[in-house]
Amino acid sequence: MRLLILFFILTCSLFAEPELKPLKGFEAKSYSSSWTIGHGVWKVEEGILSGLELEESNHSAGTGINHPCSHGVISLEFNLAKAEFVQLVMDELKGKKDHRFKLRIYKTGDMKINAGSKRNKTMKAMGPMVNITNFNSDAWHKLKVVYKGQSIKAYIDGKLINKVTAPKDFARPKNRMSLNVKGFALFKNFLYTPYE
Q1: Whole-prediction pTM value?
Q2: CATH top-level class of 21-194
Q3: CA–CA distance from 191 to each of 135, 161, 185 (Å)?
């Protein structure tokens, strides 16, 4: 019986998600220089990061941080406020950006996941768009993405919304995380922990 209990504990620990920790460089009181601004206006006030797309720009507002993120768990809270969509991107910076992952959430509650390599032309939508039931675009929501190898799971407010298997290119190294906004949106509590 003791051996069975020990086996159960060891098995659970092997498949348990790592503990989430605040991403270095994303502080509650200031917008760290670790994060670079690609487009738009980004600022932090009272622990909340806001992203605003400029009207004269033809590109959504974007900010990112260079940080190893090949396999792990990302968690953040977001509020679409006046945005058409918010997007989380993970890619490999090697010469040109090579997007490995894009998760986009629209104000309608639709979620779209693209994964793969632009460079190797395997970047594609992972199945049809999925709708988040009873989604309120004016409220705060918690997004959690769990990914390892080719497996990607996306949760909203603790509920599994989408689970996909990405192309093999997705499992290659990734070293940059970015946020994009079409319009104006808010973010807080950005956490990331790698799988060992």
Answers
A1: 0.83
A2: mainly beta
A3: 22, 19, 18
